[in-house]
Structures are given as C-alpha cells and as structure tokens.
Amino acid sequence: MIETTAVSRPRPPDMIPGYRLEKLVGQGGMGEVHRATQLSLGRTVAVKLLASELAKDSNFVVRFEKEAAALATLSHPNVVSIVDKGKAGVTYYLVMEFVDGASLRELMRSPHLEPALALRIMVDICRAIDYAHGRGVIHRDLKPENILFDEQAGRIPKVSDFGLAGFVDINSPTRFNVTETHVAMGTLSYMAPEQRVDAKTADHRADIYSLGVILYELLVGEVPMGNFDPPSQRRNGIDRRLDAVVARCLKPIPEDRYPTVRALLDDLEPLAPQSFSQVPRHVSALDRAKLKLRRALTSAARVAAAVLVVAAAIVLTVAGIRANGRERRVQNDEALTAILEKSGALAAAGRLTTTAEGRLAALGEGPDAVPLVLLGRRAALDGQKLRFALDDPDQPIGRAEIDLSELDGYQTQVVAEVTAQPPSQGFFARTGRVITGNLPHPRAALVLEGLPGRYVALVSSGTGEPLRLEWALMERRGVMLGPDSPADGVAVLDVKIDAQGELLAFTGTGKDRRQVGEPIALGASWRRHFGKMPRPALVCLEGACDFDRINFDVRREPPRVEPPPAPVVKTVSAVRPAVKRTAPKPAVRKTTSTRKRR
C-alpha cells in the first residue's frame, strides 16, 4: 500500500459525487486508486481516477473507458467487479469493489511459498482468464501486480486492471480495440514475443504466455529468461509434469502454445491440490515430535518392548530411505484427481436395465456383465464384492470406474456398501509407524466424476474419522463433515443429485439413515458444473477396501405426452332456423246441395 505523499497531494473527499475519498492506496501509469465510501450504501469501494494530464489525451480516455467496458462484461469470483463509472468535471473515474488484501507480487516475496499453494492460486487465475476469453475479453497485461487477494473472502485471488484489454466479437472473428498498429503495450517481462512487436495482432494466446511466466515465477521465484531451466530442476518438490506445462505456455510461436486457457486448465487442474471450505490442519514438527513421544512411552511399558521399538525404528528408517518417502499420507484431493494408469478391466455379474425412464446398473447377482475399468492399484471380484487388496505399497490409490455409454438424465444416484481397513503388517512395521507418526489412513470413497478435476465424493474412513462430503466443481468447491465413520469400517454410502439439482449425501439404511452435511443447490443445469454427465467411480486409498451392493441409477427426462386433441363440440345456433314455407293447399269447399235427390 502507498501512503499519501507530497507528490500525490490529497484529493478533496467529495470530489466524486456520491462517494467520499478516504485514502490513497495505489498509483500507476494511468492514475490513482483511492479507498472510498459509497454514501448511498455505506460500503467501502475503490475509486480509480484518471490522471488529469492524461485526461487531455483522447487515447487515454478511450483506454480508461475500455477498462470499464471490460469489467462490465465480466462477473466472476476471481475478477474484480465494477460498481460505477463517470466524469466529475474534468476527472474521469471508475468505481470498483475494494479488495483489501496484498497483491501476488507481495506474496511472491515470501520465502516459504509452497508449490501446492502456488498451483491452487494459478488455477484460480486461469479460471478467471478462461472466463474472460469466453466473454471476448483479452487482458494483455497479466502480471503479479494485477492479481489481488480478497482477505475477507478467504484470500481468493482476483484479476484486476483491464486497462489494456482487447475485445473480440465472439460471434465473428473481427477484433475491435483501440490499440495502434505496431505498438507494444504491457509489461515487458510478461509480454509474449508477438505482443512486444505489435500489440494489436496479439490474440488470447498472448495471455497464455503471460500465465506461463507467472506460473514459472510462482514455482521458481524469478521470471524465465532466455534458455531457462525447467522448474523441477530449480526447486525440489515440484512435480516434473509441470515442466511440460510451463514449456508449452512459453513457446515463442503462438500456434505451439495451448490453444485455449481451458486446455491449459485440463493439464494443470489434476496437478493442483483442491482448496476446501475447511482447510486441513497442518501438523507441525513439534506436534509430530509429541506424537512420537506419546507413542514411544505407551510402547515402552516393558524394557524388552522398548528394545524392540528401537530396533523397529532403525528398520523403518532404512526402509524409509529406500522407499524415498513413500510413507507420506495421501490426501483425498490428490487421490481423487490423480492421473492413474489403466491396470485392467473386469466384467462383474449384475443387471443392466434400460427403459424410457432411465438406466440402472446393479452389481451382484444377475445375467448381465457390468464393465469395470481399473486404474492404479488392481482389484478383483470376490463373489459379489469388488476388493482392493493392498498388495502394492508403492501404489496406495486404486480406482474402479463403471464403464457405461449413452448416459444422460436429469437426476443420478450411486449407492454402495463400502469397507476400509488398514493394511495387515508385521509387528516391526506397525511399531515403526507408531513411532514416526506415519500411520495408515485407509479410506473408501464413492465418487461422481465429470471432466478431469471435477467431482463429488463421499469418503468413509477406516479409522473412525467423520465422513466427508467433498466437491470440486469449477469454482465451487468445499468439504462438509458428517457423523463418524463406523468403527468396523463398514458403511453404506449414498450420493444423489435430485430433479431440482440438489446434491445430497446419506449414510446408513432404514431408521439409521442419516444425511451427511447440508444439501448443496447446484440448480437445474447442474450437469454443466461437471462438464458432462457424471459417471460413478469407486476409490480406495491407503488400505484394503471392499465395495458391495453397488447400484447406479440415471433418470431421464420423462417423455412428453401430447394431450389428445380436444373433441369437436357441435354447437347449436341460438338463431331459429328458417321454416320452409310451402304454398297452402287450396281449400276444398264442401257444398251442400240444396237440391233434393229425387
């Protein structure tokens, strides 16, 4: 933040009608940004003033107006929103939401920025730019100074400063902006090569180049220059797959980069841990030391046991070095979005029913073969159960996907009885885990998954921890806790999206059926949050898991029944029909003869 100085003299508090300027919080090439109060609503806003000397230049006025037009086009949780714009005397102003946190530049100065946090921030930034591109807005000045963190909203990043934005008519290939030909505009270190030559010809792929520079700087701590080293070679703990992502973003030729930010997100989201509404507690070194001591004291009731504990610790240390840290606990978000290699396929006995109302797949007894695709750790059928045995400690994740085609409907549900148990191990291994605190955390999850990185999961713990309903659906993500998982590890899980678009989760059956968390309203168009019609998956983590009585149901829209045609009712006219008149018959005169017959 910048305090008021003699160079930037205080502005009159009431110079902008309807707003009271309170404090200068920033300065840039276009003007000043003040914290202010919107008098009509009493809320804090940010007022951006165009510098008086620039207000005399029509080009800068148009750029200032263009920023307002860009912000008015966008409404996204990771984009600073606009409140108002106008002109007071000779002063042009924009009113935007006030973001009370630091910039990404200030966060980068922290020496302890973890790669996991960097990736979560980067995914949010990319989502904002992908949204802007979808609305025909190209930022063209992406840099850490233009990314602000909203502290009150949970430190979510927000993209700001669209003063150099370009516009593309999404209904035609014609671009319209005010950038002059053969003029470079932006910040040199973050500009794509083509933008340095001619900003007017730079399209949305220039933003992708800037995103690559920011990603590299977040991971390494400096911008890439010349023939730069891959991020994983510059810093320990960085996934090597990020090297290819960064390299593709920073290709000198636009055609060699990602074609869209959405394509970049498809590669980036699976590598980024998801952020939840309840952040998992970080276990410090002191906490781990206390846990070790407590476990050691409990196990040291006898001298002989203490000797065995020490021996087990030595054995575990050697094994830990050889395994290169494979004892690290696998987090739910890592496992549920992990890219796993296909390990096999199964055909489980069951029933596949397709009707006009929908489709039902039930695994168990039945004449049909229900196809399953296995990823990661292998699984096998044990009667009616699908079983993941922890026979490969190097692969703690196993996933089975029910492979059904032609899925479509307005509501869906997946139900299964799941069991999660710790791996069976010898005494030395168990004792070593107690000392080091690397206790196994077996979990079984019922998942509805859409495009990569988009899912809903109900997770049961084999150690009695609370059930967890987790979701990551584009910008909507979070976690809610339910009742404790059953002590024996066996739980009936039920995940459902009903006809009103409400996400519901339950555990138990009959009178013991309980709801996990609160309903989540996704809306009638809930399928767009997944990117496609979600498919069911069964996931096993760090233990042995059984899945039994698996049912997956998709309900289609009921067919429209055309009402029968209304019967034709013949109405009687109120006008009396004309009576056909006929000529009267001539009257026959009966004459009585006065003559007597003789």
Summarize the structure in words.
The chain is α+β, with helices and mostly antiparallel strands and 598 residues long. It has a 17-stranded antiparallel β-sheet that branches. The chain has a five-stranded antiparallel β-sheet with strand order 1-2-3-5-4, with helices on one face. The chain has a three-stranded antiparallel β-sheet with strand order 6-9-10. Helix 3 packs antiparallel against helix 8 (261-268), helix 5 (204-220) packs across helix 7 and helix 9 (285-299) crosses helix 12 (427-436). The chain contains 13 helices and 27 strands. Mean pLDDT is 78; it is low at 1-8, 169-185, 275-284, 321-329, 431-437 and 591-598. Strand 23 and strand 24 (514-515) form a beta hairpin.
Task: Outline the fold blueprint.
Elements: E1 19-27, E2 31-38, E3 43-50, H1 58-73, E4 82-88, E5 91-97, H2 104-108, H3 115-134, E6 137-138, E7 147-150, E8 156-159, E9 166-168, E10 175-176, H4 193-197, H5 204-220, H6 231-234, H7 241-249, H8 261-268, H9 285-299, H10 303-323, H11 332-336, E11 342-355, E12 358-363, E13 368-376, E14 380-382, E15 385-388, E16 397-402, E17 411-421, H12 427-436, E18 443-449, E19 455-461, E20 466-473, E21 476-484, E22 490-497, E23 502-507, E24 514-515, E25 520-521, H13 527-530, E26 535-541, E27 544-555
Antiparallel strand pairs: 1-2, 2-3, 3-5, 4-5, 6-9, 7-8, 9-10, 11-12, 11-13, 12-27, 13-16, 14-15, 15-27, 16-26, 17-22, 17-27, 18-19, 18-26, 19-20, 20-21, 22-23, 23-24, 23-25
Helix pairs in contact: 3-5, 3-8, 5-7, 9-12, 10-12
Secondary structure tally: strands: 27
Structural class call reads alpha+beta
Number of helices: 13
- Provide the low-confidence segments as ranges: 1-8, 169-185, 275-284, 321-329, 431-437, 591-598
- Give average pLDDT, whole number: 78
Shape: globular
Secondary structure: helix percent:
10-25%
Percent of residues in beta strands? Answer: 25-35%
The N- to C-terminal Cα distance equals 151 Å
